[in-house]
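Fold this complex.
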Amino acid sequence: MKFGILVLEGPYQHEAADSAYQFAQAAIAKGHTIEGIFFYTDGVNNVNKFMKPPAERVISRRWAEFAEEHDVDMVACVAGAIYRGMTKEIATEHVRIAGLGQLAELAQKTDRLVSFGD
Amino acid sequence: MTENSEPKKVMVLMRRAPYGTFYIFEGLQTMLVMGAYELDISLAFADDGVYAVTDGQDPSALQMKPLARTFRALPDFDIDQIYIHKDSLEERGLTLDDLVVEPEVLTSEELAQVIANQDVVLPF
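Structure:
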């Protein structure tokens, strides 16, 4: 099955940010494909490459490695990014900053679009 | 669209009061863009989401943008599948006369059926 993933909450605040990652890993382990990850609203903060939690999972690096390993398209919403000061220079590698149209395309081309939020 | 398949049926489900979180504003943006991409958009209000479309909103003291004006303009965006949850309205002492939109009022069972018929449900 082809999945799209929508992340609506920020890192280290809400379990949704971690659940999205765990779901994506589990889906691939089961032989499904992840067509894309769309980070929206506070979700855009998940791709800040400067986050440095001491002796902890690094959420942005984890996503970057996931995208690298599985060739997954990751998009941070441009409006959400502008609101929160997230720029290309701050975003981790393998992340594009693009519009909500990318979410529309993800909805159209996947079998399931799974939302992770509150 | 990148695929030649039929447009997906996408519901934006508004569940929150309009200004306590940014969710309703973001749901509105999502809905407008999805509509521009010619997906088959519907909109539903349930729980505190019914407050998003009440008349007389003035969030100026909060320095936030009023949302009701955009909801009122939905027919201009060809968004005409608008639903509202009957119990959520009644529990809050609201009637259709209090709203800036003219939604179809659905019971819990009817709303569940409409949701089940969607390809994608985006909760806000």
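Chain B has four helices and five strands.
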